[in-house]
């Protein structure tokens, strides 16, 4: 009597595992600070200085792995613009894997 249960379990576990992997997505965090440097990686301890650079890094992440979400954290301060920042459909993400720009903590 246990055999049909085991066969059913063996058949359905790979299917459940496959669908759980499909819905899994990782969030990449990028950081901007007025004290940052655009040659930095954008990591929390190595922030970039401009939103333009963060946007480019987010595009790079999404081009390598479209299922990753990206959150860009903007530290408090002034960010002078040399030219307008233009966002396109490439910068939008989607419902499951968004690209989000938000303030860092209470800054």
Task: Walk me through what this model shows.
With 107 residues, the chain is an alpha/beta fold. It has one domain (25-103). It is built from two helices and three strands. It has helices at residues 2-23, 51-64; strands at 27-32, 69-74, 99-103. A three-stranded parallel β-sheet has the order 1-2-3, with helices on one face. Helix 2 (51-64) links the parallel strand 1 (27-32) and strand 2 (69-74). The longest helix has 22 residues, at 2-23. The chain is globular, with a radius of gyration of 20 Å. The chain starts with a helix and ends with a strand. Residues 16-23 have low confidence and may be disordered.
Helix content: 25-40%
Query: What is the approximate shape?
Result: globular
Strand content: 15-25%
Uncertain regions: pLDDT < 50 for 5+ in a row?
16-23
CA-based gyration radius: 20 Å
The residue-averaged pLDDT reads 81
Major sheet details: 3 strands, parallel
Count of the domains: 1
- Strand element count: 3
Measured between the Cα atoms of the first and last residue, the distance is 63 Å
Count the helices. How many? 2
User: What sequence of helices (H) and strands (E) makes up the elements?
Assistant: HEHEE
